[in-house]
Amino acid sequence: MLIHSASQLVTPLGGMRRGKEMSDLQIIPDGAVLVRDGRIVEASSTDDLLGAYPDEDKLDAGGKAVIPGLVDPHTHLVWAGDRAAEFEMRLQGKTYMEIMAAGGGIASTVRASRQAGVEELIRQALPRARSMFAHGTTTAEAKSGYGLELGSEIDQLQAILELDTLGPLELAPTFLGAHAVAPEYRDDPDGYTALVADDMLPAVKSWWEANAAQHPLPFVDVFCEAGAFTLQQTRRILEKARELGFPLKIHVDEFEALGGTRLAVELGAASADHLVKTTDEELQMLAKSHTVAVSLPCTPFGLADPHYTQARAIIDNGGVLALASDLNPGTAWCGNMQFVMALACRYLRLTPAEALTAATINAAAAIKREDKIGSIEPGKQADLLILNVDDYCQLVYRFGTNLVQTVVKSGRVYPIQPVQESVC
Ligand code: NIG
Ligand code: FE
Description:
Low-confidence stretches: none
Mean pLDDT: 97
Strand content: 15-25%
Radius of gyration: 21 Å
Bound molecules: N-(iminomethyl)-L-glutamic acid, fe (iii) ion
Number of helices: 16
Shape: globular
Number of strands: 16
Number of domains: 2
Helix content: 25-40%
């Protein structure tokens, strides 16, 4: 299939982008891309490719911009129920962590999610996955973490794997048994830490090898935060995970700086996520490392908190910055990466080019898939978007509506209900 007549074919090139490189996009005016067997064969101008492949099936981009499929490297896609009542409590002045300390927050979603079996979890998550896809996310990471006991955590991993099989949204799974201390261990957080490290991790690994051996091991993540897991507890879990061969991620510095960013770098984690309260020293250290810095601007936005990731300090020091939605029922029920990018340009002071890089190739690097997805380059999976605007900058300039017209996933074409706002 030849996708042709794109006003501009826009993509980062050459693997994950650091610092200044995040601004370098290849922009081919009147662009075209040749797709065969679900992969990208060639990207060039429409004249070149129509001339070289006149008999190929054609998809006319109609003078609109074409970009890589968006990648969302941090979501809590699978849960049951909602927390609208807590949102009202927060509007009246209670903080997120106060609600969590009183037995609400993550624990309240744990109660609802434990009761839901795999089928019900899928039934509730599927519309969210479909909505993410319709808004241009072609691959997303998805975490367990609303079970906090082995059986329910495995139900959630199973739901993620089944959702991935259902498609078209492709999922990268993460085990987040250390999302909060399980209610049964409320007075014994070290006991729960030991349970996760010594029992759950080996059990998840055996389950995975028996049931999902065709997939690489999931990431292991920990919520390193006052009121969740201390730095020592986080280290205990992640060192064990690393020993067992799991790749690592960490939730760090969302509300307080505990030193989790330094730990992420020391352990060679694939990513360190949130990074709102991170110290300058740790930001510098992160920027010089191979760990991807993942910022989640929907989270402070959702909490009406004015503090956002110091993204400029990461990029200007040569770091690899990615963006993600953090889709979850507590802080950010939003899986729309277009909105994430729009927030990032305003509150993280990213340029449109940096935002696109952060939501594509660098996001792919945060889930260790930058060799397969995240850019429009020969050999990569044919995951791309035809927008309904002719300049990719419109994607971050406008916000609040869907500017994706067609999603192409592994070479299959999915038309999205057209929303024609205004011609441009
Ligand atoms: O990334 N911080 C921990 N986890 C989520 C919130 C999850 C929830 O509140 O249900 C986050 O913000
Ligand atoms: Fe999160």
